Amino acid sequence: MMRISRSHRNSAFTLVELLVVIGIMGMLMSMVLGVQRYAQSKSNRSRVEGQIAAFAAAAEAYKADNAVYPRSAETDDLSSLTSGMGAADASAYKPANLAFYTMLSGDANLDGRPDANESTGAGTAASAPVSYYNFAPSLLQIDSGKVVFIRDPWGKPYGYSTKRQKVLQSGLQDDPSAGHNITYDFWSTANSDANERAWIANW
What we know:
Strand content: 5-15%
Structural class: mainly alpha
Number of domains: 1
Radius of gyration: 26 Å
Shape: elongated
Helix content: 40-55%
Number of helices: 5
């Protein structure tokens, strides 16, 4: 019996051994999670770059029909510079973002579908606004059945500004402090609202 008992004690893990194993497992898990976060961030950035390129193509189509890039009072007021209105707070992007969506989507009633695709009401094919871009549902933040903004992969609104374009079209001298591009600025804060260097943008 003594021999069996001694063998049983020798085959058991000591507290120190258990702590070492748990520590190694924790280190491995943190490494895996770090790699996963990096891969997710890289994937999100690639998606944003593709989306901005697609939005730019849609804006060019809009300009071909309307002789001006998508503009509204909301997009003229928003600045893309860190010293401008709302640059450190993505929630301030929503009005200009929604105006951009309305102009490109052909969805005047903000239900997430181009009005030309609806069979009833004022949004018939004959009277519906032109749709320049088909927004996937995953791109739209919808609350109570209405689109409230175009969202990036981090769930935040894209920024869209025509403030510098407004200056030029008003016949005033160009003002670089009004924005980065003379046409329009489009960007995602990439979940780093206050760090402009981390943003993904068309400038």
